[in-house]
């Protein structure tokens, strides 16, 4: 990745102002990497902002911002509307943890940006962002956080302990606590973050959930069904959920005997059904999700379907699975 790091650095240094953006419903991997990159860019004496989405944030993300404030770590945010108005011909936009146009935080900002960098760790889909100054999409790395750790190492830089804690938490979430998408480089990245002061107690605080959330997830896990001899499927109710909610249930289903792959279906917007798919590795869930217009990894994938009912999406998944 050294050539990528060199090119990335040279491009960043060409611009005086840089915006960083991740995907819809930002998580600790995308945001942790964004904060790390923000620190790198400001160390180059460049003006930099992380785009702050107007979407509702889950507890771990809200707690992340509280920790940054408590530890007096300055990170400049800019709301989507203000950022969109501020984009000029000489602004660089860096997009992290996503490469599909339909999944980014704000399409208007992308459309206004003439200079774009994409850094992602998901399997490349067909609707990828084109006309970039640099596009590095590598599905062999566990997370965009892992990429940032080695970028820090390349630059011989470090981050504050609280940022290292956020980053290592994001990496653990993306790898299901190192059970999926994990290589020796992932463990090395975790060791590097630990050496920077990543705090295990603060990490647990970021990962905590309410008792109500745990019990609600357990209810849906309990009502899940096997759709064949090694695949489990869970249908949520008619409420609106976040992709993270669906992912947590899909991951939990993998803990059960004989389950090699799992799917959770739920509404993530009023007219959009989300699917989160997980696998232990023997089933390629990315292939299944790609048929639905989604994507991801061999063991971790998702899709979003508009104007379909959950039952229709369930039937589509069963049909795809039966044709394999």
Topology overview:
Layout: H1 2-12, E1 17-21, H2 28-43, E2 47-52, H3 59-70, E3 77-79, H4 80-86, E4 91-96, H5 107-112, E5 115-120, E6 134-137, H6 144-155, H7 161-174, H8 184-195, H9 200-207, H10 211-222, E7 225-226, E8 231-240, H11 243-253, E9 261-269, E10 272-279, H12 285-291, E11 295-296, E12 300-306, H13 310-323
Parallel strand pairs: 1-2, 1-4, 2-3, 4-5, 5-6, 8-9
Antiparallel strand pairs: 7-8, 9-10, 10-12, 11-12
Helix pairs in contact: 2-6, 2-7, 7-8, 7-9, 10-11
- Gyration radius from CA atoms, angstroms: 19 Å
Strand adjacency order, main sheet: 3-2-1-4-5-6
Mean pLDDT: 92
What helical percentage do the residues reach?
A: 40-55%
CATH architecture title of the largest domain: Alpha-Beta Complex
Task: Calculate the terminal CA-CA distance, rounded to whole Å.
Answer: 35 Å
List keywords for this structure.
single chain; 324 residues; alpha/beta; inorganic pyrophosphatase (n-terminal core); Diaminopimelate Epimerase, Chain A, domain 1; 2 domains; 6-stranded parallel beta sheet; 6-stranded mixed beta sheet; 13 helices; globular
């Amino acid at each position: 990745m050294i050539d990528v790091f060199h090119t990335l650095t040279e491009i960043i240094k060409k611009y005086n102002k840089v915006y960083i953006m991740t995907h819809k419903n930002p998580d600790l991997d995308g945001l942790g990497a964004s904060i790390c990159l923000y620190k790198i860019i400001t160390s180059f004496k460049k003006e930099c902002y992380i785009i702050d989405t107007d979407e509702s944030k889950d507890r771990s993300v809200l707690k992340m911002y509280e920790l940054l404030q408590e530890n007096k770590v300055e990170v400049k945010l800019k709301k989507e509307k203000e950022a969109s108005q501020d984009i000029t011909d000489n602004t660089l936009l860096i997009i992290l943890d996503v490469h599909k146009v339909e999944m980014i935080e704000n399409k208007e900002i992308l459309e206004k940006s003439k200079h774009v960098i994409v850094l992602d760790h998901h399997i490349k889909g067909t609707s990828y962002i084109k006309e970039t100054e640099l596009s590095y999409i590598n599905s062999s790395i566990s997370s965009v956080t892992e990429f940032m750790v080695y970028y820090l190492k390349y630059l011989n830089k470090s981050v504050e302990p609280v940022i290292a804690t956020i980053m290592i938490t994001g990496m653990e979430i993306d790898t299901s606590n190192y059970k999926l998408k994990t290589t020796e480089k992932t463990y090395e990245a975790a060791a590097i973050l630990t050496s920077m002061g990543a705090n295990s107690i603060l990490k647990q605080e970021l990962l905590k959930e309410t008792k109500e959330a745990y019990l609600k997830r357990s209810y849906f896990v309990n009502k899940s069904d096997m759709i064949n001899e090694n695949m489990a499927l869970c249908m949520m109710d008619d409420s609106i959920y976040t992709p993270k909610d669906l992912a947590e249930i899909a991951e939990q289903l993998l803990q059960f005997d004989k389950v090699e792959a799992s799917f959770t279906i739920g509404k993530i917007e009023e007219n959009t059904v989300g699917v989160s798919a997980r696998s232990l590795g023997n089933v390629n869930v990315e292939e299944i999700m790609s048929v639905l217009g989604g994507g991801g990894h061999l063991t971790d994938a998702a899709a979003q379907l508009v104007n379909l009912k959950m039952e229709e999406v369930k039937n589509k998944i069963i049909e795809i699975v039966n044709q394999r």
